Amino acid sequence: MFSFFKKDKSAADPAVSQPEAPATEEAPKLGWAARLKQGLTKTRQQFTKQLAGLFGGGQIDEDLYEELETVLLTADMGVDATQTLLKTVRDRATLRELKDPRALKQELQEALTELVLPLERPLDISTHHPYVIMMVGVNGAGKTTSIGKLTHYFQSQGKSVLLAAGDTFRAAAREQLMAWGERNGVTVIAQDGGDPAAVAFDAINAAKARNIDVVLVDTAGRLPTQLHLMEEIKKVKRVVTKAEGSAPHEVLLVLDANTGQNAVAQVKAFDDALGVTGLILTKLDGTAKGGVIAAIARSRPVPLRFIGVGEQRDDLRPFVAADFINALFDDE
């Protein structure tokens, strides 16, 4: 067992060496709204370019609605969400007796905002102490990086954080988490191999002893079809509950936006197996498939706690439906 400690009263152990303070990053030059718009560039450019051609003139007819259906599907919104949006736009166009196709753009923007709004449910960590969060997802989704960014987010709110390196199957994952722990100046509970459930158990007990606010438990990445591995992560959850009766207080599924509709399948599979309470959608800056948020909202509306649009530590922020949709449609 070995750990990193930040220099605070919760980790005053003279027997353990202290990490150097993380390097100071250059302050972001853009505010969050601007970075969100910048991060959605690929999705927005594809989406708004098609909408501009669609709503640029002509008349509202069946041909227009068929083309709109194609645009929504191309943006990876999925069949169910696309049909829901089309019906809403049709109904409003009829009710308001719209004749100009340009008016449909505003109707579509409002309909999209309403569709994804139920996903906007910010994470409240004030209900338990320590607040235990299990992080799950497939390999490559950005799970460990998201843990590092979440640590920074909670620290910015004045909360103390402890990390559990529960991905004992991949040595690189443990080392990566330790790097994030050192960078943020927080404790990382880890083992050389061993049982991931035991790491989680030790981390929760350590958090209690040190009066830590938030515990982030990393887990091994796995595909939802790997049933034996899914059983192992269920064991981790049971042991977490054994360590703290009300925990885990949150099971966060990390999704890579680049996977598009496959992300919807992951939500369903992990939710069925573990009872997912929240989502993190990463790498929105690297894909044109940001419309998958609409697909998730329609098929399995698990709260979207955070979205990631960049590489900086503070590029992971709470999901706000109106901000996201405005950034998607703002083509100026």
TrEMBL record:
<feature type="binding site">
    <location>
        <begin position="282"/>
        <end position="285"/>
    </location>
    <ligand>
        <name>GTP</name>
    </ligand>
</feature>
<keyword id="KW-0472">Membrane</keyword>
<dbReference type="GO" id="GO:0005737">
    <property type="term" value="C:cytoplasm"/>
</dbReference>
<dbReference type="GO" id="GO:0006614">
    <property type="term" value="P:SRP-dependent cotranslational protein targeting to membrane"/>
</dbReference>
<keyword id="KW-0342">GTP-binding</keyword>
<dbReference type="InterPro" id="IPR027417">
    <property type="entry name" value="P-loop_NTPase"/>
</dbReference>
<dbReference type="GO" id="GO:0005525">
    <property type="term" value="F:GTP binding"/>
</dbReference>
<keyword id="KW-0547">Nucleotide-binding</keyword>
<feature type="compositionally biased region" description="Basic and acidic residues">
    <location>
        <begin position="1"/>
        <end position="11"/>
    </location>
</feature>
<protein>
    <recommendedName>
        <fullName>Signal recognition particle receptor FtsY</fullName>
        <ecNumber>3.6.5.4</ecNumber>
    </recommendedName>
</protein>
<comment type="function">
    <text>Involved in targeting and insertion of nascent membrane proteins into the cytoplasmic membrane. Acts as a receptor for the complex formed by the signal recognition particle (SRP) and the ribosome-nascent chain (RNC). Interaction with SRP-RNC leads to the transfer of the RNC complex to the Sec translocase for insertion into the membrane, the hydrolysis of GTP by both Ffh and FtsY, and the dissociation of the SRP-FtsY complex into the individual components.</text>
</comment>
<feature type="binding site">
    <location>
        <begin position="137"/>
        <end position="144"/>
    </location>
    <ligand>
        <name>GTP</name>
    </ligand>
</feature>
<dbReference type="InterPro" id="IPR036225">
    <property type="entry name" value="SRP/SRP_N"/>
</dbReference>
<comment type="similarity">
    <text>Belongs to the GTP-binding SRP family. FtsY subfamily.</text>
</comment>
<dbReference type="Pfam" id="PF00448">
    <property type="entry name" value="SRP54"/>
</dbReference>
<keyword id="KW-0675">Receptor</keyword>
<keyword id="KW-0963">Cytoplasm</keyword>
<dbReference type="GO" id="GO:0005047">
    <property type="term" value="F:signal recognition particle binding"/>
</dbReference>
<dbReference type="GO" id="GO:0005886">
    <property type="term" value="C:plasma membrane"/>
</dbReference>
<dbReference type="InterPro" id="IPR003593">
    <property type="entry name" value="AAA+_ATPase"/>
</dbReference>
<dbReference type="InterPro" id="IPR013822">
    <property type="entry name" value="Signal_recog_particl_SRP54_hlx"/>
</dbReference>
<dbReference type="InterPro" id="IPR000897">
    <property type="entry name" value="SRP54_GTPase_dom"/>
</dbReference>
<comment type="subunit">
    <text>Part of the signal recognition particle protein translocation system, which is composed of SRP and FtsY. SRP is a ribonucleoprotein composed of Ffh and a 4.5S RNA molecule.</text>
</comment>
<dbReference type="InterPro" id="IPR004390">
    <property type="entry name" value="SR_rcpt_FtsY"/>
</dbReference>
<feature type="region of interest" description="Disordered">
    <location>
        <begin position="1"/>
        <end position="28"/>
    </location>
</feature>
<feature type="binding site">
    <location>
        <begin position="218"/>
        <end position="222"/>
    </location>
    <ligand>
        <name>GTP</name>
    </ligand>
</feature>
<keyword id="KW-1003">Cell membrane</keyword>
<dbReference type="GO" id="GO:0003924">
    <property type="term" value="F:GTPase activity"/>
</dbReference>
<keyword id="KW-0378">Hydrolase</keyword>
<feature type="domain" description="SRP54-type proteins GTP-binding">
    <location>
        <begin position="303"/>
        <end position="316"/>
    </location>
</feature>
<dbReference type="Pfam" id="PF02881">
    <property type="entry name" value="SRP54_N"/>
</dbReference>
<dbReference type="InterPro" id="IPR042101">
    <property type="entry name" value="SRP54_N_sf"/>
</dbReference>
